[in-house]
Specification:
By secondary structure, this protein is of the alpha+beta class. The chain has two domains: 60 residues; 362 residues, Beta Barrel (Porin), CATH 2.40.160.10. It is built from three helices and 18 strands.
Amino acid sequence: MCKKIVLVAFAATILFRACLSYAGDDVQLLQQQLDELKKNYEQRIDLLEQKLQQIGNNDTALPVAAEPFAATVSNSFNPAISLILDGRFASFDNSADSYELPGYSLGGEAGLGEEGFSLGHTELAISGNVDDKFFGKVTLAVDEHDGETELELEEAYLQTLGLGHGVTLKFGRFFSAIGYLNEQHEHAQDFADAPLIYRGLFGDKLVDDGLQVSYIAPTDVYLEFGAEALRGSRFPGGGEQEGIGAWSAFANIGGDIGIEHSWLLGLSHWQSGDVDGRESGGHSHGGDAETPSFTGDSTINGLDFVYKWAPNGNPTERNFKFQFEYFDRQDNGDVTLLNSGPPIENTSLNGDQHGWYAQAVYQFMPQWRAGLRYDWLDSDNRGSDADILAEAGLDNEGLRPRRQSMMLEWLPSEFSRVRLQFNRDKSFEESDNQVVLQYTHSLGSHGAHQY
């Protein structure tokens, strides 16, 4: 019996030593492979650094194919190019040419757009990292106005990368950070048209040339502060400004509630003390087209709130978003009716225009979304000549414009969308039933949209 135990122990010892020897061989083999892999990558890195040095000597920029903070840089030696194709069919009960918002002089691109089949807001964007310090983006918009195709430079800006301490600078032409919706491109919005308050105050969108500085605080909640110095010559500003004609400031605070809920609250302010000739849409007077022009001081204050919900923190299957914005504009100055003939007609203006919208969008299936929106406007504009105010569209005619909207979307993929929208527009005396069938398709590289 003892001999058997000794033999078994001897055999186990030999087997254990063999395993150790075998494991040692494996470890040695793995170490050799790691050394070879490290050497191979070091050679590749050296070769890449040599190529970068050669390119740097030729003063060639090194754009990266993703927007700041994007997850992929797979096309790092070429700028990202994206094309947004947008088209629609629209039907209105009332004439689009007679559209108005009582109490508001419409400017910019405010209006209903073309009836029937038409191209919408087609965009061509080119973006990329200039180097490790700057990111650049240019967006061209193709639109049709009065049967003519127009090409507009919508954005052209540079943005700093990695300044540190939560500070970011942006300069050039960009969408102002006032409000929540203003910075979003039209194809990223949840409805086919802008809220009425955006249409009345900004001409759909506030875009200007200038400098923006923003700061994100190192806090547990999201806390952002920012300011903009703007040229102020574009609507709702006006005139040939040579310096800083307008400025804005904004603050945002937000956070998460568990893993399913998130929220964002924002305050914003825009001001111009030197609006000189802010022109808006023409009005009919005795067969002649008259254009209201405002000169004076203008101030806009805004409040916005957004709430989002996604079950288990995963928005791909189902999600819900509620969005609210309120704006108030104070105008103090003079209104002149251009092309009115001598004597030139003008009046003083003490204007107050305000309004809000609220909307809710629910993705009830992975490829389907539905939404509701309600708009409400009001105004209290006073002047020395009520008739001129009426001709300028600043008399609210005792009306408070309002609108209800419903939309249904089919999203075959993240790159395409087909949307059906119905508006019951009570902006003026005769209510208007509006139907829009819209398609939007994205080609090429396109960065993620902000919150």
